[in-house]
Amino acid sequence: MHRQIGNRRYMTDPPLNDGARAARRARTCSGKPRHSEYHRPAREGRSLRERSGAQPRPPRGAFTRLRECLIMSGMVVLVAAALLVQVPPAVPQIDVLKPSGVRVLVVPRPASSTVAIAAGFRAGSAIDGAATCGAAHLLEHAILFRGTEFSSGDELISRWRELGGRLNGNTFPDYTVFKISVRREGVYTALELLREMLFHPVFAQIDVQREADIVCAELATREKDPLLVLYQLANQAVYGDHNYGLPSFGFPRTIKELTSAALYARLDAEYTPGRLTLAIVGPVNESEVRFFLRETYGSYAPGTTTQPALAALPPLAPNTRRVLAWTSPEAQLAFSFRGPPSADADWLPFEAMAYVLCGGERSILREQLIHQTAIARRLELIVEPRVGGGLAVFRAVADPANIALCEREVKASLARMLDRPPDREVIDRALNRLALEAAQRTESPQSLAAELVRWDILGKWEYPLDLRTRLAQVPNERFGWIGRQYFGPQHYALGVVAPAGAYEDGRRSVASVVSRERRVVAGGGGTFPVVAQSLPESNVFSFALAVRGGLAADASGEEGVSALAARSVLFGEEGKSGDAFRDELLRWGVEIEAGAKRDVSFIRFSAPEGYFEDALDSVSRAILDPAFRPPDIERARQDLLVETAAFPSLADAAERALWKHAMEGTPYAVFPPGSYDAMAALRSDDLASRTWKQWDRWWRPEHFAAAVCGPRNVDELVALVRRAFATAARQPPLGGGPAEFTPPRHSPRTVIIDKDYRQTEQPHVYLLCAWFVPESTLENLSALMLLREILAGGPGSRLWRLRQDEGLLYHLQGKVVVSRHALCVQIAMVLPIENLRLARNLLLQEAKRTVEEEELALARKAIERENEERRERGLALADEEAWFALAGWERDAYHDVLRGTSPAAFKARTALYCTGNRMWTIAVGPRDAVSVELSARE
Length: 938
Description:
This protein has about 950 residues and is of the alpha+beta class. The strands form 6 sheets. The chain has a 6-stranded mixed beta sheet, with helices on both faces. Strands 16-17-21-18-20-19 form a 6-stranded mixed beta sheet, sandwiched between helices. A hairpin with a 6-residue loop joins strand 3 (about 95) and strand 4.
């Protein structure tokens, strides 16, 4: 028999008398269940018709047992027919069921395999108020997970599982939505179960208390998520004391105080059939579904049908700030802008202008804060429509020291936009992105059903379906007006979640959250050594990979293939085009380079924090699984040919000549990255095979060493590298390094490179003097570094007075070149041709002169200062660390040797290798004049 209790109308047993009904209601609210804990009693109450004095519905509207059986049997036949007949998709139409007022949208999608159902009430957390904040959230949980008047919670869960579905729900400020997906044959059973849960829930006090504990535990996890905390700060900042400013998930204190009676009162008053919208999307027969819904959902009294009344939004106070201290290495800023009501015609252009400012890779704020100034590390957009007035939140993640700077840049960008509104191209780009995201939200039946329900409550249900058409109808000048009305520098509220003390009334203060540390993680077990260096003050990550081989591993006549392989890796992994790979890195702001040195090939790059992990993953995939497409390899060869075809400077010309003559007959004779003649002689059809051969032999984990540095702790840095190269351990080792060779003992000599000067030019000479040390050890390296600093280390060095006091030199520079088989200290000078002999002789004299401990100590300090400066340049530091790790040298051991070098030890080593008869001289200038000055043969 049919009966109506409260505003619910449903099938049940014969009615109880008033005394029995009152006793059952009292037991439910007091938390004392009947003998069976899973028996859910009905609730007492009169229908809205009875309360208003209207006549009750006539008996003909109720099912008898016989009619029920006949109709349900007919439904079975119709369902079976629907499974066999494909119904073509139709334009959705809204249908308001009578008398309940339930709004129904049915969208047939014959090609789908599942049916999505979404049901939303026009009631959400905004009706709670501070005293009962969280009631809507708790009510949603109780409907989802507790029983009904006919089934226990466990029985409902079991029936949903039999259908292969799981009901889910969410509470928003203006609405509460429930969603489920089932297979097509289960759609009618799912609708019946959903009706039972929405219209006939039971809230026993013991169940309410249990669910309140669960919700409070959920809140505890939310409070640990800085993103959710920031979002709530943004709400509070932009809405103030309005109910929109309260958290939709509630406060633990108020949730624990809620009773079953309070939930019943809320359910009867606010969650009525007249406020329900139901959307069904999937392979259904529309007419049959609508008939079914009319006979079930349509048979209820409507109750309240209008949207809950809310107070007017208070004006936004200028300079509104909400700051919360947080134990995080990052600062998060939320710039919140209040928009028009969701049903207003200006909501769409407001949303579009939010995308213009912050909605994509080329948006105004992303270009300014990330690509141009690197003030922010990440930038995201959150847009939320609301009945009383929506909001747009620009979320920026930045270094704590950059909070005030970030806010100033946002203000400046907003002011510039007011002075010069964005052009149509910028707007169209944002509109396209907005339309794309809207299309993605309506792509699946599940997302479309939820969107239809959401927008039927917030404005017009057609919004997600005709958004692109509506966008095209907005005139360009309207966007400019929206920008002035809603996005001015005075129109935002700021929420900040940052380390304690990082934000104080707009003043900057630095919060140290990453300690400076360096760690070397040895290789083994299929892994390779990794050196990690944390740089807490930096905003950039750097990574370098050194690969054993380099020019020393290239075959004779193929000098440069190692560099060719490294450059070809930069065209990406298999399955992705080279241009797409490079464009991706450019979009992330990544600077990357690859090549070969004498003993190693290398890849190194720097990236802003927000993109480093993505860049590392992308580059590692290219290293471990390169595409090596012939056109890309040819492009890499052309780049190398351009690089090696000519000498870009006198310094390069002199250094190339030095190594060519001093290392003749060895791989070191070729100056990195390779030989122009060898690269030009390679046949195009051989390039791919030679590149693959070089990669197969050397680009393996046993030949790798990596270094990474950036604003993270070393454990995190190492974990990033290990994760990116996890698949490298699967490659079996193939053998040792390049063949050993002994540096030649060529007699040092003078080499003159002829350079003619025009008559208007003052003739000068580039003079390069060098000593080679055939044993590459830490002791020899320390001695050469000290010699370079003593002779040509800058102001105060021995040769500096030739430039500063006597004016004999125009330029002075010292350099130590480190390779696996030889070390070389080089002293370069630019000087008038008439001073050539004098400068050379003074260099030899100063190299022989005794060094005192005081002078040696000053040289050590200068080298250590130089090392400290290099540690602040992440990419140079990573490159050096990777080389040291591959060579098997420990940088700390090198510094220990450097500090322990005594004047006697220094003298012993320099007297052995840095003498007049072992010095190479390369001069670039007029040949005849230089020959006369040096009195030397070529």
